[in-house]
Every structure is written in C-alpha cells, then in structure tokens.
Specification:
9 strands; four-stranded antiparallel beta sheet; alpha+beta; binds acetoacetyl-coenzyme A; about 375 residues
Length: about 375
C-alpha cells in the first residue's frame, strides 16, 4: 500500500495551492460580505484547467483522475469554499454527468464549453418538496411532438443565476414513479425559464444560490440525457461523484481552519508563553490534526475507488459524512483557539465555520449519507 502522491499529483496540488493564495485569498472576505459571485475568477479557473478536470481531452477537459480533482478541491477550499463549490458543481455534477451519460452531439455542444470554463453549469434536482426525498419530483416534462414541456420549481440551485446550462430532473411518467423521471439539458434564456431571487445564506456566500421556475419551457427531445426514464439513476450516479467533491471541499475547509489555528497558537501569547505551549491548546491541535488525517484517508479512498472503476457509492457517502463533520468540529475549535479574534472576519476562521455547515447539508444531508451507507452494509 502506497500513501504517497505521485510527482504529477504534487504538481497539480501545488499549482492549486498557489492559485488559491494569489487569486482567491485577496478579496475573499469582501466576496463573503457582499455575497459577490466571482465571475471574474471562473475564466481564470478555466485557464488553470480546474473547470473540467476529469473530462476527456477530446472534449476540452484535463483528462485527470479523481485524486487530482480532490487535491484541487482541497486547496481551493482551504481558502475560499464559495469558489470551490462552483468548481465542484461544474466538475462533478455537470461535466461528469455529461461525460458519462450524454451522447456525442450533446457532448460536442454542451460539454466542451463547460469543460473549458467558457460556460458554467448547474444541477437541478432539489425542489420545495423534494430535497432529501428526491424520488418525489413534482417538476414535470410532458412529451409534445419533437419536444417536452417543462413545468415546475427547483430550489437551492448552486450557480443558479450564473450558469449557462442547467441539468434539470423532471417527472415524465408519473405512474412509473422514479422510473418515469428524465434528465434534460436546459439553456438559460429559453422562453418561460425564470430565475428566482438570490438566497441570503449563512455561508458559501460568494456562490449564488437561487430557485428556478419553469413555465411551459420547450425542451427539444434531443436534450434528454439517456433513455426515457433514466433520469433518477442519472441523478443518483452523478451525486455519488458529487459527494467526493463536497467531501474534498469539507476536507479543505477543515485543513484551512486547522492551519490558521496552529499558526495563531504559535504567535499568540497568554500566561507568559505562546498558547500552543499550553496543553489545553496543544491537545486541541492533536485532536484536530488526527480528525483531519482520518478524513483525508476516507476522501482519498473514495477518489481512488472512482479511479479504479469500482463502485464508490458507499465510500463517497462515508467520505462526505466524516469529512463534513470534521470540517464542522475543526472550524469550531479553530474559532475557539483564536478566542475573540476568531469571532471577527479578518482572521477567516469564522467564515470557515459558517461555510463548513453546508457540507453537512448539500448533495445529501449527513442523514442521507447514513441511509446510503447502512443500506449497503445490510444488502451486501
Ligand atoms: N446509483 C444508481 N441507482 C441508484 C443509486 C445509485 N447510487 N441510488 C439509488 N439508486 C436507484 C435504486 O437502485 C432504485 O432503483 P430501482 O427501483 O430500479 O431498484 C432507485 O434509485 C430508488 O432508490 P431507493 O429505493 O433507494 O430510493 P429512496 O427514495 O428510498 O432513497 C435516496 C434514495 C438515497 C435517499 C436518494 O433519494 C437521495 O440520495 N436523496 C438525497 C438527494 C440529494 O442528495 N439531493 C441533493 C441535491 S443536489 C445539490 O445539492 C446540488 C447543489 O447545487 C450543490
């Protein structure tokens, strides 16, 4: 068993680390404060190859493995979890979904610009009454000649107003329940497609989250992904990979908070010495580092499973479950180690604590991950 990273992986990680330091760190506090979506950074992240990392070269992507993707997600998330969720949704929900299941014409038209960062994607599964309970889709896509008519509302959509292309899950044959669900590629600007107001969020405030409203939107039949009725499986398969991305985001938030807390403890003095010399702080750092490393192994294992072509539904759920708890625990402790300074914006850890919470909610809550894990344990 080899736990070391290859030269290539180290190069990719270092490039992402440098990018995060030079491009994401300046302005991260202001973007969070103003809920500013970093449109200007998308192009730069595309130029770095971060927007379509696992897409084959023939469609403009980087043809990289999931380990590389996790390393990039971790480094970006250490500094700016808002920027990293934009990257995560584009890579693992949109580009991966199209790479794995779209036909050649769909890939040529939609995947190529998404992979280069020229266009941005969004994944639209959640609804007002179908968040965790994803089979209960109320959005409908009814066949009408050479197209479908799409009606309904989607909620909490990352990249909601900034995306160009949207993968929309909708019910076509209600009587078939989840076997009647389809996935469609919908373009921004199509008649009847409205973008709702921006959500005012606790964390990841630099990413734009919106509800989307579809009123008799005409979607050409050629924009359906896969066979009729494939939409629910498409969503579940795609989400398994998405969970690796969010697990890596959580790992990055945890790592960023830990790094800041450790450095702070080496310079902040109390009771005549640097606070890291007090066991109350040193033991916290020991616990944080141990939890961080455990999370890293689970995240890497899930990515490795994906790269091996073996099933990663369970390992991705375990990685997300554990890493998101680690992000929460470690960021809370990082604030505690910073004391009063931890509660103010300029020290960054309060933002990380707010950002950490979403990793326990989106792409399946922690409770959903436990459903996925426990079912696999009981059916294997
Ligand atoms: N791969 C392929 N098929 C899968 C699958 C997977 N990983 N998981 C489930 N399925 C299939 C099942 O095999 C079953 O198919 P059959 O009936 O043909 O056997 C079908 O899907 C239904 O599965 P279940 O009976 O298990 O359905 P359920 O309703 O009991 O539970 C669930 C499914 C795991 C709870 C699922 O609904 C789920 O994951 N919910 C959470 C949804 C979610 O993560 N939402 C996040 C929104 S996206 C987001 O946050 C994006 C963003 O912008 C950041």
């Amino acid at each position: 068993m080899d736990f070391s990273l290859s030269e290539e992986h180290l190069m990719i990680r270092d490039a992402a680390r440098e990018f995060a330091k030079t491009e994401l760190l300046p302005g991260v506090i202001e973007r969070d404060e103003q809920q500013h979506f970093p449109k200007e950074l998308i192009k730069k992240m595309g130029d770095m190859g971060f927007m379509g990392m696992m897409v084959p070269v023939e469609y403009g992507g980087g043809d990289m493995d999931a380990i590389s993707y996790v390393l990039v997600m971790e480094e970006l998330s250490k500094v700016d979890a808002s920027a990293s969720v934009i990257v995560s949704v584009n890579n693992s929900l949109v580009c991966y979904g199209l790479t794995a299941y779209a036909n050649d014409a769909q890939k040529e038209k939609y995947l190529r610009p998404l992979a280069t960062g020229d266009k941005l994607g969004a994944f639209c599964l959640s609804e007002p009454e179908a968040g965790s309970d994803a089979t209960s889709q109320k959005t409908t896509a009814i066949e009408n000649g050479d197209h479908y008519i799409l009606n309904g509302t989607k909620n909490w959509i990352t990249n909601g107003s900034s995306a160009d292309y949207y993968l929309v899950i909708a019910q076509t044959h209600k009587e078939k329940k989840h076997h009647g669900i389809n996935a469609f590629i919908v373009e921004k600007g199509w008649e009847g497609f409205e973008i709702g107001p921006k959500e005012q969020k606790l964390g990841i405030r630099g990413s734009d989250t919106h509800s989307l409203i579809f009123n008799d939107v005409k979607v050409p039949k050629e924009n359906r992904i896969g066979e009729d009725g494939f939409g629910f499986k498409f969503a579940m398969k795609t989400l398994s990979g998405g969970r690796i991305g969010i697990a890596a985001q959580a790992l990055g938030i945890a790592g960023g908070a830990y790094d800041l807390a450790r450095e702070y403890s080496k310079v902040r003095k109390a009771f005549g010495t640097e606070i890291c010399n007090h066991q109350a702080i040193a033991f916290k750092l020991a616990d944080m580092h141990t939890q961080l490393e455990a999370a890293r192994y689970l995240v890497m294992k899930a990515a490795w499973d994906k790269d091996q072509g073996t099933n990663y539904d369970t390992s991705s759920a375990m990685a997300k479950l554990y890493a998101s708890q680690a992000a929460m625990d470690i960021s809370v402790e990082a604030v505690q180690i910073h004391g009063g300074n931890g509660y103010v914006k300029e020290y960054h850890v309060e933002r990380m604590m707010r950002d950490a919470k979403i990793t326990q909610i989106y792409e399946g809550t922690s409770e959903i991950q436990k459903i996925v894990i426990s079912r696999s344990l009981l059916t294997d």
